[in-house]
C-alpha cells in the first residue's frame, strides 16, 4: 500500500477549507489535483527554459526541445510503445479521438460504412464517431451493457459481424466505473481486421498500460486526469496507421517543404503536431506520470480498490441507496442515487459540507437514459483519498438525506 | 408590498442563521410554498434551459401585474425559485425589469446565479424579466 499521508502532503490544493470545512475532493474522474513537483515544473519551465521548440539554434530553444522530446521518450517507455514517434502530443483525450476520427475516419470510411462503440462511452468517444457516420451516411453501432453496467461481449461479437471500419471503446467508464475487457475486444476486432481505438482517459492514472501487450491501434489519454496539467494529452498510434493517415491540422512545424502550390509534410510525430505546442503542460505531464510510476501502478490500484470496496459497503448500508454500475471489474468510481433525492440537491449540500462530488449526467447522457435517471451523484477516488474521508463523506450523505427526505 | 421590501424581508429571514446547513434547511422549507404551476403548463415549452434540475415557469398578466407559478424536480432549486417568485410575482413589469435581485448576494446564494453554475437560475431570472418585457410591450399596444 502507498504511504497516503506522505502523498497527501505533496498536494497543496488538498490542504484547504471550503465553507469552513476541510476539503474532501472526490471528483477525481473529472480531474485530479496536482502534486507540488508538477506545479514547480511549470514554473521552472517559464523561469529557466522558455523558448519555442524545434526551431531555434540558440541554447534555450535546444534545451526546451530536448526536454520536450525527452518527455516523449519517457511516455513511450511508460506505455511500452514500440517507438517514441508513436506518441503524438495533443490537447487531451478529446483532441486525440477527434484526430483519429477525422484523419483515419475519412481515410477508411466510405458511404454507408459503420463504426462500433459501446453504450457507456463518454460524449468525447461518441460524438466524433457519430458525426463521422453521419458525414458518410453510415451507421454508429452501439454495444449494449447489462444491468450491472458490464459490456455484453456477445452483442459486441454480433456487431463485429456487421463489419465496422473502426472500433472505439472506453477502457474504463467514467459514469459507471466499469473496466471493459479491452484485451479481448481488441483480439476479437483484429480477427476481423478492424483497428481499435481505446479511450484511456479514465485508466491512465489507475492501471498500468502496455500498448504492445494490448495490441490496440490507438490509445488516447489526458494529463490532467493523472495528476498533470490541463491542456496536454497523448495519442498513441501504431506506426503503420500513423504513416498512412493524412495530417489533421496544418501550419508550422508539421511541414517539410512549402511553396505556393504544394507542401510536403514532416515525418512522424511532427506531421500531427501543427503549431507551437503546449510545451509546459507536456513537461508537467511527464513529471506527473513519473510521480505515478514512482508510487507504482500496483500500489495505486490496490489502494483505490480498497477505497472502492469500503465506500461501496458503507453506501449500501444507507436506506434506498441505488448504485449504478456493479460490474465485477470496476474502477474507483461510484455513481449513485438515494430514493428520489435529486443529484443536484445532494451535490449542493455535500459541497456546503466541504465535499466535492460530481452531479449530473457525467457527459454520458445515453448511460443515464439506460438507467432512466436524469443524473447521478458520482464519487471518484484517487491515490490521495483516505478511509477517514470516506467516513466523513458517508456521514455527510446521511445528514443531507435527512434534510432532503 | 414593493419588491425591495420583500427582498429586505427575505434577507432578515436568512440573517437568523449562520450555518450553511440551517440556511439550506430554510430554503428547502420555503420551496414547499412555491405557487404551483398548473399541470397543463408543465411542458417542455415551459422548461428553463440550462438547468441540471428541471424548472418549469409560467407567467400571467393580471391588472398590470405579473404573476408567476413554477415547479422544480430538485428541492433546493425549488427553494431558490420560490425566493425569486416571492420577490417578483405580483409586481409591475417596470418594477420587475428594474430590480437587480441583490438580496441573493446578501443571503449568500449569489453563486447560484453565476453563469458558471449549470443550474440555470440565471436563465430563470432572464426568463422572468423577458415575460415582464413581453407583457409590457403587449400592454403598450
What does this structure look like?
The complex is a heterodimer of chains A (405) and B (141). Chain A is α/β, with parallel strands linked by helices and 405 residues long. A seven-stranded mixed beta sheet of chain A has the order 4-10-9-8-7-5-6, sandwiched between helices. Chain B is mainly α and 141 residues long. Chain B has one domain: Sufe protein. Chain: A (Alpha-Beta Complex), CATH 3.90.1010.10. Chain B has six helices and two strands. A two-stranded antiparallel sheet of chain B has the order 1-2. The two termini of chain B are 28 Å apart. At the A-B interface, helix 12 and helix 14 of A face helix 2 and helix 3 of B.
Architecture of chain B in CATH? Answer: Alpha-Beta Complex
Shape descriptor of chain A reads globular
The end-to-end distance of chain B, rounded to whole angstroms, is: 28 Å
Distance between the termini of chain A: 39 Å
State the major sheet of chain A.
Answer: 7 strands, mixed
Instruction: Quote the average pLDDT of chain B.
Output: 89
Which stretches of chain A are poorly predicted, pLDDT < 50 over at least 5 residues?
Answer: none
Q: What form of chain B results from the Cα inertia axes? A: globular
Based on the coordinates given, report the CATH architecture of the largest domain in chain A: 3-Layer(aba) Sandwich
Q: Please identify the top-level CATH class of chain B.
A: Alpha Beta
What are the main properties of this structure?
heterodimer; A: 405 residues; alpha/beta; Aspartate Aminotransferase, domain 1; Aspartate Aminotransferase, domain 2; 7-stranded mixed β-sheet; 4-stranded antiparallel β-sheet; B: 141 residues; mainly alpha; Sufe protein. Chain: A; two-stranded antiparallel ribbon; 2 strands; 49% helix; globular
Amino acid at each position: 500500500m502507498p504511504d497516503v499521508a506522505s502523498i497527501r502532503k505533496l498536494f497543496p490544493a488538498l490542504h484547504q477549507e471550503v465553507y469552513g470545512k476541510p476539503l474532501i475532493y472526490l471528483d477525481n474522474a473529472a480531474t485530479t489535483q496536482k502534486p507540488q513537483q508538477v506545479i514547480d515544473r511549470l514554473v521552472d519551465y517559464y523561469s529557466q527554459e522558455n523558448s519555442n521548440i524545434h526551431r531555434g539554434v540558440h541554447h534555450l530553444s535546444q534545451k526546451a526541445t530536448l526536454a520536450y522530446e525527452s518527455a516523449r521518450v519517457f511516455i513511450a517507455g511508460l506505455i511500452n510503445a514500440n517507438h517514441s514517434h508513436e506518441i503524438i502530443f495533443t490537447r487531451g483525450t478529446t483532441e486525440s479521438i477527434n484526430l483519429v476520427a477525422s484523419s483515419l475516419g475519412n481515410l477508411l470510411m466510405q458511404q454507408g460504412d459503420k463504426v462500433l462503440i459501446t453504450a457507456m462511452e463518454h460524449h468525447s468517444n461518441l460524438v466524433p464517431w457519430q458525426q463521422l457516420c453521419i458525414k458518410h451516411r453510415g451507421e454508429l453501432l452501439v454495444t449494449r451493457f447489462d444491468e450491472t453496467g458490464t459490456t455484453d461481449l456477445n452483442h459486441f461479437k454480433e456487431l463485429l459481424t456487421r463489419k465496422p471500419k473502426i472500433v472505439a471503446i472506453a477502457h474504463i467508464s467514467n459514469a459507471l466505473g466499469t473496466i471493459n475487457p479491452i484485451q479481448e475486444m481488441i483480439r476479437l476486432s483484429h480477427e476481423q481486421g478492424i483497428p481499435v481505438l481505446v479511450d484511456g482517459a479514465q485508466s491512465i492514472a489507475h492501471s498500468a498500460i502496455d500498448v504492445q501487450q494490448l495490441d490496440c491501434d490507438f490509445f488516447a489519454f489526458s494529463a490532467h486526469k493523472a495528476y498533470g496539467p490541463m491542456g496536454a494529452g497523448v495519442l498513441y498510434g501504431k506506426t503503420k496507421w500513423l504513416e498512412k493517415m493524412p495530417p489533421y491540422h496544418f501550419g508550422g512545424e508539421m511541414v517539410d517543404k512549402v511553396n505556393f502550390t504544394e507542401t510536403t509534410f514532416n515525418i512522424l510525430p511532427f506531421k500531427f503536431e501543427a503549431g507551437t505546442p503546449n510545451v509546459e503542460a507536456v513537461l508537467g505531464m511527464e513529471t506527473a506520470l513519473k510521480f505515478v510510476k514512482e508510487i507504482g501502478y500496483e500500489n495505486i490500484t490496490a489502494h483505490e480498490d480498497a477505497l472502492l470496496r469500503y465506500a461501496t459497503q458503507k453506501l449500501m448500508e444507507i436506506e434506498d441507496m441505488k448504485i449504478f454500475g456493479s460490474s465485477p471489474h470496476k474502477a474507483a468510481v461510484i455513481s449513485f442515487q438515494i430514493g428520489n433525492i435529486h443529484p443536484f440537491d445532494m451535490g449542493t449540500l455535500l459541497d456546503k459540507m466541504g465535499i466535492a462530488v460530481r452531479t449530473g449526467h457525467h457527459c454520458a447522457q445515453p448511460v443515464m437514459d439506460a438507467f432512466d435517471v436524469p443524473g447521478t451523484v458520482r464519487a471518484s477516488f484517487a491515490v490521495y483519498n483516505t478511509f477517514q474521508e470516506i467516513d466523513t463523506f458517508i456521514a455527510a450523505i446521511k445528514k443531507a438525506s435527512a434534510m432532503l427526505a | 408590498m414593493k419588491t425591495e421590501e420583500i427582498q429586505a424581508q427575505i434577507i432578515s429571514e436568512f440573517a437568523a442563521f449562520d450555518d450553511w446547513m440551517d440556511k439550506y434547511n430554510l430554503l428547502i422549507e420555503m420551496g414547499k410554498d412555491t405557487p404551483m404551476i398548473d399541470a397543463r403548463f408543465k411542458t417542455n415549452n415551459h422548461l428553463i434551459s440550462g438547468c441540471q434540475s428541471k424548472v418549469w415557469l409560467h407567467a400571467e398578466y393580471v391588472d398590470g401585474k405579473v404573476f408567476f407559478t413554477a415547479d422544480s424536480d430538485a428541492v433546493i432549486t425549488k427553494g431558490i425559485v420560490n425566493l425569486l417568485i416571492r420577490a417578483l410575482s405580483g409586481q409591475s413589469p417596470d418594477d420587475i425589469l428594474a430590480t437587480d435581485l441583490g438580496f441573493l448576494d446578501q443571503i449568500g446564494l449569489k453563486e447560484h446565479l453565476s453563469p458558471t453554475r449549470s443550474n440555470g437560475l440565471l436563465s430563470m431570472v432572464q426568463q422572468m424579466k423577458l415575460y415582464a418585457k413581453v407583457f409590457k410591450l403587449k400592454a403598450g399596444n
